[in-house]
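Section 5: illustrative case.
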């Protein structure tokens, strides 16, 4: 009997769904900022950005498909305790510590700042985010079809708007590309690689990958190898769309410096470039689409984290957990977008190497017989470096930690954890082989 597979039409449909799942409004702010800072090194930097911002999410989906489970099942390969700890850390990162507050900050930066001027920004941000997260909380109590329908129409509208913006930017560049800023002069590829962490799509894929796998199973594709194979196909479709968006927006950022100057964050850059290329009408359309897109993302993330907490702490009522999430996100969002990004980076520097190790080792686990000791050794090796690197990024014990870690190969490139993670895996395999 022939095994069930997806038709080309079904593959494209799920690929586009995956594209929409990853293309959050927050993701639009990082490529323009990278473009401004990378300058003439923009193409090298954006390729590094694509590795972590596009390639890793695709591999994460494949890893989830291959494991036949979710993030907790993947994390359990290290140990049961890690299976409880790491998913919680990931949910906190994509939830109230950064992911959810970012929706409010981006919505304000693009949806309100262009019309409010320079005065009383702190008060206006508070009022805006209070309303934004109040509505998010209300909708999260009953995530009706309204939210999914809005998402269904918003993604095409956002893609059309970005296409018009990109074509205008390529045909009529805003200005000339400047020299790269500090940080992009020596290792632009690896600087872009680290900037890709900010999209959070790789760790989000570990959480939401089950959604993509479920859609395949709804079409009758249940054989694990076939699910993993088709996950690659739909991932390539989604990844191609994301790559085009990131290339276009980074180019717009790179060509904007001579006309608008260096700006604090990508939200301000995107607004300024839109005004120059599309006029006030373009800015209004961009503001409307992105605010609603941020709102639907906020509702989705609050609901997802609320459901997660309901599983791990079933005695706490769902309205209470979602209310606490929304309130904490409101407080975090009032740091402002630039400060929020700076706050989140150390945490992502700590988490991402561990996530990368998990993804890679799930994909190659046949080589080492799926031994838990190998996973454990690799994760410990990565964490021993990524955690101090996060502290360095946060400015905590930066000098002594840097002097110690600088002896590691690739440390200056931001991937000093690679050799220790590999060594940890080898040590784990050796000890497991001795038993």
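Designed sequence:
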């Amino acid at each position: 009997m022939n095994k069930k597979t997806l038709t080309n039409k079904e593959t494209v449909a799920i690929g586009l769904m995956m594209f929409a799942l990853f293309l959050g409004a927050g993701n639009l702010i990082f490529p323009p900022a990278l473009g401004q800072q990378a300058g003439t090194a923009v193409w090298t930097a954006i390729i590094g950005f694509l590795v972590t911002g596009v390639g890793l999410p695709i591999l994460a989906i494949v890893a989830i498909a291959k494991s036949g489970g979710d993030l907790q099942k993947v994390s359990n390969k290290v140990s049961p305790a890690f299976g409880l700890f790491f998913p919680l850390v990931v949910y906190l990162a994509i939830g109230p510590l950064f992911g959810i507050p970012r929706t409010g900050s981006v919505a304000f930066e693009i949806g309100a700042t262009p019309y409010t001027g320079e005065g009383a920004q702190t008060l206006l941000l508070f009022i805006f985010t209070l309303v934004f997260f109040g509505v998010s909380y209300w909708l999260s109590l009953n995530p009706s079809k309204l939210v999914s329908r809005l998402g269904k129409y918003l993604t095409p509208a956002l893609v059309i708007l970005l296409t018009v913006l990109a074509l205008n930017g390529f045909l009529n560049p805003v200005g000339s590309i400047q020299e790269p800023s500090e940080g992009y002069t020596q290792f632009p590829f690896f600087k872009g690689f680290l900037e890709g962490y900010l999209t959070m799509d790789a760790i989000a894929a570990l959480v939401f990958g089950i959604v993509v796998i479920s859609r395949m199973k709804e079409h009758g594709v249940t054989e694990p190898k076939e699910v993993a194979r088709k996950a690659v196909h739909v991932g390539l479709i989604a990844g191609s769309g994301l790559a085009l968006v990131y290339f276009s927006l980074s180019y717009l950022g790179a060509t904007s410096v001579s006309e608008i100057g260096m700006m604090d964050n990508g939200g301000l850059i995107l607004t300024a470039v839109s005004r120059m290329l599309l006029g006030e009408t373009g800015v209004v359309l961009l503001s409307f689409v992105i605010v609603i897109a941020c709102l639907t993302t906020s509702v989705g993330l609050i609901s997802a984290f609320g459901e997660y907490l309901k599983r791990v702490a079933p005695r706490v009522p769902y309205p209470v957990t979602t209310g606490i999430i929304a309130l904490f996100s409101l407080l975090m969002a009032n740091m402002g977008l630039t400060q929020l990004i700076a706050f989140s980076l150390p945490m992502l520097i700590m988490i991402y190497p561990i996530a990368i190790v998990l993804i890679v080792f799930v994909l190659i686990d046949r080589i080492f017989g799926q031994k838990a000791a190998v996973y454990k050794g690799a994760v410990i090796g990565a964490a021993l470096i990524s955690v101090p690197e996060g502290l360095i990024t946060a400015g905590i014990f930066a000098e002594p930690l840097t002097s110690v870690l600088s002896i590691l190969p690739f440390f200056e490139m931001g991937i000093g954890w690679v050799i220790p993670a590999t060594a940890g895996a080898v040590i784990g395999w050796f000890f497991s082989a001795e038993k």
